[in-house]
């Protein structure tokens, strides 16, 4: 992929996507960016996540995928930045702009390359200081459908043959090797579990909206976490929490789930006095299980010791973790639990 003349006078072209995986529609946008400017920045969204059915590839794997489709000269013109999901549009767009401008601080013109495929493309309007070039969506390729084929097929060779018209050859070759990793088998199991879970609700007259509670419990610059023992997110770190019972108040549910999963050895009155804040996390994409709105309760115990804990219920482990270590664990968290911690404790700002 190489272009010798640029179609417009812009110094830097920007392409934003999740690229899970990089397909021919993405390749079309990258081609337009290479034609538009001498330097291209590819923004890898949804980075620093634990692997999931929705985000199975790390940022490093996506970079390798994209670079595999480019010749050596073109690779020299393309740079990559990884950006986390903040579940906050303003904060996310500022982070994207800051990372792009760090690479090209002296550039006087930026062009954002993209197309409006559906309602999720609204993010393209969040960069008013950059010129927006809309490209026609000629491929109509859906990355969700690609992942479905990968996870549902019994034979990888067959699935890659089905995807021949959607993926560059270099990406198909990359995926053939990637599917031999242990992570792929775990994701297939997770996908099947999610499908079974959603099927159980398929007969509901309306798409279900779930209500959950989570607890952020801190003391001595540590936070109480559990390691999930089962599907979904087996082995990932999470906040103690769970689903609201039908006749239960939210705070009561948070305390119940906290005790069931950690057996935290403090009195109810201690928790009540330690409550600092409550926040609602309602991003439509925060959970793979479906629309799930959680109410997070932040307790600061301010004790001079760590109360006893013991993992129970569906928690494989319970642990007091230093807040200073949370950022390095970001890719090990379930769903948006890192971001819940970040909202209360400003972890990513440290």
Write up what this structure looks like:
The chain has helices spanning 24-36, 59-68, 72-75, 89-103, 143-152, 156-162, 169-178, 182-200, 250-262, 268-274, 337-345; strands at 12-17, 39-47, 78-84, 110-114, 131-134, 210-219, 222-228, 237-238, 241-243, 275-281, 292-300, 315-322. It is α/β, with parallel strands linked by helices and 350 residues long. It folds into 2 domains: 12-141, Rossmann fold; 210-349, Nucleoside Triphosphate Pyrophosphohydrolase. The strands form 2 sheets. Strands 6, 7, 8, 9, 10, 11 and 12 form a 7-stranded mixed beta sheet that branches. The longest helix is centred in the middle third of the chain and has 19 residues, at 182-200. The two termini are 40 Å apart. The relative contact order is 0.12. The model has no long low-confidence stretch (mean pLDDT 94).
